[in-house]
Design brief:
This protein has a five-stranded mixed sheet with strand order 1-19-18-17-16, with no helix packed on it. About 10% of the residues lie in helices and about 35% in strands. It is mainly beta and about 400 residues long. It holds the Pfam family DUF5128.
Length: about 400
């Protein structure tokens, strides 16, 4: 009898351990079937509830080269990470001030690779290239302090950051130094306390993970981890927990796990991966209170975009044909009601003669909402869109 109890204890303990490492998927989480539960649209008139256009004020201190990430604060302010630094704009697009300073000084960040807000949304945290975390006050952009995370092992570069409870934080790394080593466990996510002490390792790697858009902010300032290569699960980071919240099921048309494995001495063939006749790379995942948005690489390197009703699990999708040479229209943030798109196409379009290959949502914005940068040397536009879904 005692042996049976001990055996049961070992099994339960093992299951709990696996769950804490993120290797078990909960069966009750919502599953989206993009190929069967969404309809392809070309005319967006029936599917747009409302649109708001926010010009981002361009000054000598707020010129934007390329937006890498947008965080939305509870008051609607926008923290924008671009190639030249971190900038804060108000809810109407007026520039407020830079957050921190890029440089080599003790209170500066050398090269911010990702940003997040702390749990109380009073600070902006910048993950630097050297894996340090610099903290700045959201109220004025001034330096608060810098944390050096203490990894349990020699760990490669990190590309993503998210807050944890009690001023702790998560850091996301893609692959080990020996990227072809799939026998030694490698955990992509690491949890640290407020002092930088390592607390836990989660999310075991299954295949080669592309260093692209790993973590995004949700409307409630929780953070989402996109499905990793070889996986189909989206996770939410909140408190000190990583919970599986959504699954994306493309059936047999999803990229096989074997495509993400590489041999020693080989480099990952990104071109072959992107052009493969499968769906892959669910990313740019954002959610409002009612809807979920994500993009996905499709067969023949076409980009597919999806918006789903989180209650009915029904949605719409549209395609950006690779023949369309114009700038991509991507969602980079969300609040409770709207998705935030970046419009950075400086061509002076005539609505009556748009390129036939142009992505349909972008066509709608130019033709029906008269969105146009007209070649001016200004910052991109933020287009807030609320969709109308079945």
């Amino acid at each position: 009898m005692k042996r049976n109890i001990l055996f049961l204890f070992v099994i339960v303990t093992g299951l709990i351990s696996c769950k804490s490492k993120g290797s078990q998927v909960q069966n009750h989480i919502p599953t989206f079937f993009p190929l069967t539960q969404s309809i392809q649209v070309k005319d967006f008139m029936p599917y747009i509830d409302s649109v708001a256009i926010l010009p981002l004020e361009a000054t000598d201190s707020s010129f934007i080269k390329d937006i890498k990430k947008i965080l939305v604060t509870p008051s609607g302010q926008m923290v924008i990470l671009n190639t030249s630094g971190i900038l804060l704009f108000d809810e109407k697009g007026h520039f407020l001030f830079p957050v921190g300073t890029q440089g080599r000084g003790p209170e500066e960040y050398l090269h911010a690779v990702d940003i997040c807000l702390n749990e109380s949304a009073t600070e902006v945290w910048a993950l630097d290239k050297d894996k340090s975390v610099s903290k700045y006050a959201l109220s004025n952009g001034h330096f608060i302090g810098k944390i050096i995370p203490r990894f349990s092992t020699n760990y490669p570069d990190c590309i993503g950051i998210a807050p944890a409870s009690k001023e702790g934080f998560f850091l996301f790394g893609c692959n080990p130094y020996e990227k072809s080593d799939f026998t030694t466990p490698f955990y992509c996510l690491n949890l640290f306390d407020a002092t930088g002490k390592h607390i836990d390792s989660l999310l075991p790697r299954k295949a080669y993970v592309l260093p692209l858009d790993a973590i995004t902010q949700s409307y409630d300032n929780s953070y989402l981890i996109r499905p990793q290569e070889g996986d189909k699960v989206c996770y939410r980071l909140k408190g000190k927990k990583m919970d599986a919240i959504y699954q994306f099921d493309f059936g047999r048309k999803y990229m096989p796990l074997s495509s993400g494995k590489i041999r020693p001495g080989q480099h990952f063939d990104i071109q072959n991966y992107v052009n493969a006749p499968y769906y892959k790379l669910p990313m740019y995942i954002h959610e409002t209170a009612d809807q979920l948005y994500f993009s996905c690489g499709g067969p023949e390197a076409n980009d597919h975009f999806y918006v789903f009703n989180k209650t009915t699990l029904q949605g719409i999708h549209w395609v950006h044909d690779r023949k369309d040479a114009t700038a991509l229209l991507l969602a980079k943030a969300s609040d409770k009601d709207f998705f935030y798109y970046i419009f950075n196409d400086y061509n002076d379009y005539i609505p009556e003669s748009l390129p036939i290959e142009m992505e349909p949502l972008k066509r709608y914005l130019i033709k029906e909402k008269h969105v146009n940068l007209k070649g001016d040397s200004m910052n991109p536009l933020i287009i807030k869109i609320k969709f109308k879904l079945p």
